[in-house]
Amino acid sequence: MVRKLRLVGSAEIRTMLGGVSRQRVYQITTRRDFPEPVAQLSMGNVWLAEDVERWIAERRADLD
């Protein structure tokens, strides 16, 4: 069976975090403990959705 790769960029991360600002997404995604992007495209970095979801679930209280 083929596994679908779910990728997210900063716009999707904004939504995942409840609509925070673009500046806040930048602050969060450049933290040392944030997952490494899996690719750097001309539109920006992209991450595995499951890595970002796990990171948010583990640290959500710290971000509020």
Describe it for me?
The chain has helices spanning 10-16, 22-29, 49-63; strands at residues 7-8, 39-41, 44-48. It has 64 residues and is of the alpha+beta class. It comes from Micromonospora lutea. This is DNA-binding protein.
Query: Helical stretch count?
Result: 3
In one word, what is the shape? globular
Q: What's the helix-strand series?
A: EHHEEH
Low confidence ranges? none
The portion of residues forming beta strands comes to 15-25%
Q: What is the first-to-last residue Cα distance?
A: 39 Å
Mean pLDDT: 93
Number of domains: 1
| Class per helix and strand makeup | alpha+beta
In percent, how helical is the residue content? 40-55%
- The value of Rg in angstroms is 12 Å
Strand order of the largest sheet: 1-3-2
Count the strands?
3
Protein name: DNA-binding protein
Structure described in brief:
With 64 residues, the chain is of the alpha+beta class. 47% of the residues lie in helices and 16% in strands. A hairpin with a 2-residue loop joins strand 2 and strand 3 (44-48).
